[in-house]
Amino acid sequence: MWNTIGKSLWLKSNCLFHQNQVASDSVHRGNLALQQLSCNACLEENKACKCDQSFESCKRVSGVDEHHAEANNSFTHSVINMTGMLIGLGQLSTPYALETGGWSSAFLMIGLGVICAYCSHILGKCLDKNPKSRSYTDIGQQAFGTKGKLIAATLIYMEIFMALVSYTISLHDNLNTVFSGTQFKVSWAKLSKSQLLTLMAVLVALPSLWLRDLSSISFLSFGGLLMSLVIFTSVACTGIFGGVKANHTIPALRLHNIPAISGLYIFSYAGHIVFPNLYKAMKDPSKFTRVSIVSFTLATILYATLAFMGAKLFGPHVNPQVTLSMPPHLIVTKIALWATVVTPMTKYALEFAPMAIQLEHNLPHSMSSRTKLIIRGTVGSVLLLVILALALSVPYFEYVLSLTGSLVSIGICVIFPCAFYLKICWGQISRPLLLLNFTLIAFGLLLGVVGTISSSKLLIKNLKRAHSG
């Protein structure tokens, strides 16, 4: 398995791109989507790559054939990569979402999986129309020009930022549980134990933001998919060996909670930023639709299984992060908690990489390499501390994650793929497909608006309650 995962890293001759395709969560999806920054991603030390050249020029300079350098993924390899993109942070919240919305909300989860699989398929159709398009932002530019590219890039950065806030909240919550019996206090610091622990964990990860070697940074995410499988297995072991009986009754439907949990469900399928990269990496792109069907089916099965398993095991007391519901005395619980703690600490440098690349590219070429390193490291450190401050100020994992899904992910996964497809392929689309895509856009807008309003209200309500208390 590790050999397969390792193949996901590509070095395009002298232009070094971070192409790790086995990310553990939707945060990492933005990283791959922004790789195609022309030669922006070339490291300055690499003199063979001229950063003022286009991507095509860079390939000519290096003398590398694009097809052999990149399009070498088999069907199985592509399924592994896409499934790895889909299974991540969202899995922690699926048991909570099912319990909150009722067991019939699983049909919404499955339906969103089908819709997102279809939207993955039409992104491939858009790439067919223009072989030069290589990324989500390229498709946006192909459809709506510079404005389309700008909107796509904005959504990507928003998702990265908001998901990193959710990751840090998860880090805070799980650290607090891991060290629940430990006394830890600094007399001069006006912070709680959990806040101090989170601050220390973030400070430990902070130096990684100063790394410039993207191929080294990419190895930080190798354990992501493994950690997700560890969490799933740990929850299963809790029911099989942990003495916890799956005897809770899941309510049929709680309609008033559906808008809030819809964001949690849609976030779980948010991988579309990266799918153009996966498409371009395939030996036979005509199989991309089959890859999407298999990958979304596998992800949906895992989500549904974990959702019903967690809801039956923990019932109305299930935590928005299922790991926090597990009995603290069990070994599998400690393993799951540490898996959830370690993962965010390995992600910060990885997810800051796209923004760091763009930032460094925009700096004057006359600026020395050391100065650029100081600037990007400083900006990354400040950004991480802002994320930390937000996570500690708004420690409500489920509402932040739901808001991310409703505000950003629904646009990335449903609304914009359909809009791009309609604009690019208008003349070749049949009337039934036109109706379908317009319906999906309307459905996405409705779900996004009601979900954003609902999750925002809940977030504000809990912030007011905490402030008044």
From TrEMBL:
Q: Where are the transmembrane segments?
A: 103-124, 150-171, 191-211, 218-241, 261-279, 291-315, 335-353, 373-393, 399-422, 434-453
Its primary localisation, in coarse terms, equals membrane
- According to the entry, every stretch annotated as the Amino acid transporter transmembrane domain falls at 73-454
Which superkingdom is the protein from?
Eukaryota
Q: Where in the cell is it found?
A: Membrane
Q: How does it sit in the membrane?
A: Multi-pass membrane protein
Annotated Pfam families: Aa_trans
Keywords tagged on the record = Amino-acid transport, Membrane, Transmembrane, Transmembrane helix, Transport
What's the protein name? Answer: Vacuolar amino acid transporter 1
Which species expresses this protein natively?
Prunus mume
